[in-house]
Amino acid sequence: MKSEVIKLTPSLAEHFLSKNLLNRNISHALVAKYASDMENGDWELTHQGIAFYDDGSIADGQHRLLAIIKSGVTILMMVTHGLKKETSLGIDVHRPRSVSDAIKIGGFSDWIEGKHISVANLIADKTLTSTETIDLLNKMEESIKFAMTHLSSRRYLTNSSSYGAVALAHYNYVDVGILERFCKVFISGVSENKLDSSVIRLRDDFLKNPSNRRSIKIEKLFKCQRVILALVQNEQINRVIAPRELIWNIH
After folding, report:
1. Together in a domain, 109 and 227
2. Closest-CA residue to 1 (of 90, 119, 84)
3. Strands 50-53 and 75-83: what pairing?
4. Which residues share a beta bridge with 153?
5. pLDDT for 13-22, tens place per residue?
6. Looking at the structure, do residues 19 and 82 belong to the same domain, yes or no?
7. Do 103 and 215 lie in a common domain?
């Protein structure tokens, strides 16, 4: 078995893929993610790369090769030749590192956890790359921590939707007192005046519909923002309807 680092061009990637006799089904989302990292200069050389069995067929790396072709970028890549076929039982069967694992192990952050990454992905309305995740969360660190401190953990209530709404409002300089009031009523279910009725309606909506479907989570994020805006404007709303777009966003 022999390994070496080479400059892997799109044309060479196409040549390698011609040897792809038998492999897993292609995940186009994973190819797009890898290609995005490559295009943005966020792809790093590691011990993981392309591997070939001793008969010349691909053992590992078809998604990396497809991403190189998709991105049109030449990438430094570790390439290994001469794996025995029986080694296929040990390829990609171990527990993969999560994005938060990779961030911590790489020393990029000592505070980012999986729950923070979920908020970042919901706010961005896409699955972010590791670099994009770090950039967004570091930009919003104070606001993310504010949201998670004041929204004490409650099943079906505290999730990426509610955390994200409060964090975005805080990031956009909404009055801290109003946000603290929203969090207190939303978690406790105890209203302090008639303007809090919209918060109670929002709370009931969260409890009655605990679905984790992405479309529902986005709708809840929008509804949270609408209720926070009502508090800001001293407005009493009888029905919580999600606005067509985010009221406060990352910029």
Report:
1. yes
2. 84
3. parallel
4. none
5. 999 988 776 5
6. yes
7. yes
Q: Is the domain of 135 the same as that of 114? A: yes
Q: How confident is residue 89, by pLDDT bands cut at 50, 70 and 90?
A: very low
Which domain range does residue 208 map to? Answer: 99-232
Beta-strand relationship, 58-60 and 2-8: unpaired
**Exposed e or buried b per residue across 186-225, where buried means at least 16 C-beta atoms within 10 angstroms of its C-beta:** bbeeeeeeebbbbbbebbeebeeeeeeeeeebbbbbbbbb
Q: Identify the helix (H) or strand (E) that includes residue 65.
A: helix 62-71
Q: With b meaning 16 or more CB within 10 Å and e meaning fewer, what string describes 33-51?
A: bbbbbbeeeebeeeeebbb
Q: Which two tokens stand for residue 46?
A: 């590691």
Number of domains in the chain: 2
Q: What's the whole-model pTM score?
A: 0.67
Q: Do residues 84 and 105 share a domain?
A: no
User: Is the separation of the CB atoms in 98 and 114 below 8 Å?
Assistant: yes
Confidence of residue 24 (pLDDT cuts 50, 70, 90): low
Determine, yes or no, domain membership for 109.
yes
CA-wise closest residue to 182 among 196, 171, 172, 169: 196
Q: Which residue has the higher pLDDT, 47 or 167?
A: 167
95 pLDDT tier (thresholds 50, 70, 90): very low
Same domain as 184, residue 60: no
The answer to the question of residue 114 being in a domain is yes
User: pLDDT at position 23, please?
Assistant: 58
Domain co-membership, 76 together with 133: no
Same domain, 157 and 41: no
